[in-house]
Design goal:
It is built from 18 helices and eight strands. It is mainly α and 492 residues long. The strands form four sheets. Strands 1-5 form a two-stranded antiparallel ribbon. A two-stranded antiparallel ribbon has the order 2-3. InterPro entries: SusD-like_N, SusD_RagB_dom, TPR-like_helical_dom_sf.
């Protein structure tokens, strides 16, 4: 038994926490068989719980995309920046340091050898590998589990696997097309060098994992907001239903969360001189809308290599020092003066740049002041569910319902919201998409909405490519990386 436990822990160290380039390869699976993992799990549930906690750590750790020195490699929030830039809504305002340069000028996406294609690929498949370890150890995808602990472990693992495939399917496929081969789909450690599965198969797996997790996680209570629970599973499931065109299911699932969480009120949606621990930056900063997030402390050791370092001018890092991340000029101009969110974007140096200085800000609001990051990471909040429900209702030709749902958000942001009730058809869909772009700026969600809505983006204020680009233009989607094509004989 000691051999089994030691082997399993060694597998965890190699398969989950290594930053080397070969973590997708098969060697580490030889350390312990699937049968032995199934034997270990029931004997020591804490082994799986520790591995699950490790998955959540990967979401914010630096280097989890496989690099040691790249300052845009720091987990999920790093790829939120990737997608915001590809959507055109986030502008890279300077090339002084070079991080994101190739992404911002849309050359990364045309060169599968560019390492920025590989970082998210490695990050998400690394987590997938770890989730498959847990799922195999619990008896496999179709295991019938008796104990609550085993059900909750399986639910968390399947939710995290679905989360990874959800983002991979959005970042590496030009659009939702069930017939198109898009990704290698692995659901067990025994599956290696898999060929590309179709969009239909990938999205079916995402959906089935999340539907199963929503049931498996019933009754589970997490500590804080870092881990996934039934609410997170349902939030991802609502996104999945929406993407797949299952509009009734999307609306119903989103409503479950709307009923549980409170929308950020207007007076807390922007810095007002008093709310220094604000709703977008701190779990305990009146963020009653947070469904999923990470409470960062000094123990995590994050500094300039972080989302805060790259985006916030009040953190000592790149946004302050010369590579600002600002709102697209056209998008900023489209926000009515009566909308409180216009005040989220200011220019403290009078350079006519739309910094998100009054939306995301480190406590104290001292330029370059936060040297060690304790501002928090938000992964999901209830406003997304309101927008999902409104979008689903609009595409389901339920315009009155969509208006009513959208007003729940807009009435808390804009004093002149009566116009919503007059919108129908495409005009209503366009406004919902517009609200996605304003409300979720900087949070990695407008890219997903761009693809769902088959939008054409118009870039204004960018250093390059100030032009209209359709959602399925090759420049807006990452390439399957060179290393994967080299290593996997079943991908041409």
């Amino acid at each position: 038994m000691k051999y089994i436990l030691k082997s399993f822990l060694l597998l965890m160290a190699v398969g989950v926490f290594s930053c080397s380039d070969d973590f997708l390869e098969s060697e580490s699976t030889e350390l312990i068989s699937t049968d032995r993992m199934a034997e270990v799990g029931p004997l020591n549930a804490e082994i799986f719980n520790g591995t699950i906690r490790g998955l959540y750590t990967l979401m914010y750790q630096t280097g989890t995309g496989g690099t040691d020195l790249d300052h845009n490699d720091f987990g999920q929030k790093g790829y939120d920046i990737f997608s915001d830039m590809l959507s055109g809504d986030m502008v890279l305002g300077g090339y002084n340091y070079g991080w994101y340069k190739n992404l911002a000028n849309l050359t990364t996406t045309l060169d599968y050898r560019d390492n920025d294609n590989y970082k998210p690929w490695r990050y998400y498949y690394r987590i997938i590998r770890a989730t498959n370890t847990i799922i195999d150890g619990l008896g496999g995808n179709d295991a019938v589990l008796e104990s609550d602990d085993a059900k909750w472990q399986m639910g968390q693992a399947k939710t995290m696997r679905a989360y990874c495939y959800f983002y991979l399917a959005n970042l590496y496929a030009e659009e939702y097309n069930p017939a198109t081969p898009i990704l290698p789909l692995t659901t067990s450690l025994t599956e290696v060098d898999m060929p590309l599965s179709t969009g239909a198969d990938v999205w079916a797996r995402i959906k089935s994992d999340l539907e199963a997790s929503s049931t498996l996680l019933d009754g589970y209570t997490r500590e804080g907001l870092q881990g996934v629970d039934q609410d997170v599973a349902n939030g991802l499931l609502a996104y999945t239903y929406l993407t797949m065109g299952e509009y009734g299911n999307a609306a119903t699932t989103a409503q479950k969360l709307i009923d549980k969480y409170a929308i950020i009120p207007r007076d807390l949606a922007v810095y007002n001189g008093d709310n220094k621990r604000n709703a977008f930056s701190y779990i305990d900063g009146d963020g009653a809308d947070w469904i999923w997030g990470m409470d960062l402390t000094l123990d995590q050791g994050l500094d300039l290599v972080s989302w805060w370092g790259q985006v916030d001018i009040f953190t000592y890092s790149y946004a302050w020092a010369g590579d600002p991340k600002t709102m697209d000029a056209g998008l900023f101009a489209s926000i009515p003066d009566t909308d409180v969110r216009k005040g989220q974007f200011i220019d403290p140096w009078s350079e006519s740049l739309n910094y998100p200085a009054y939306k995301f800000y480190a406590e104290g609001l001292s330029i370059g002041g936060q040297r060690e990051v304790t501002s928090d990471y938000v992964y999901m909040r209830v406003e997304e569910m309101v927008l999902i429900k409104a979008e689903a209702e609009a595409f389901d030709n339920k315009d009155v319902d969509a208006q009513t749902t959208l007003l729940q958000l807009v009435s808390e942001r804009d004093t002149d919201y009566a116009f919503i009730s007059g919108l129908t058809g495409q005009a209503l869909k366009d406004e919902i998409y517009h609200q996605w772009r304003i409300e979720m700026w900087g949070e990695g969600k407008s890219y997903l909405a761009m693809k769902r809505n088959k939008a054409t983006i118009v870039r204004e204020g960018h250093i390059e490519y100030n032009e209209a680009i359709p959602y399925n233009d090759d420049r807006l989607t990452l390439d399957i990386p060179y290393q994967e094509i080299q290593d996997n004989p079943n991908i041409n």
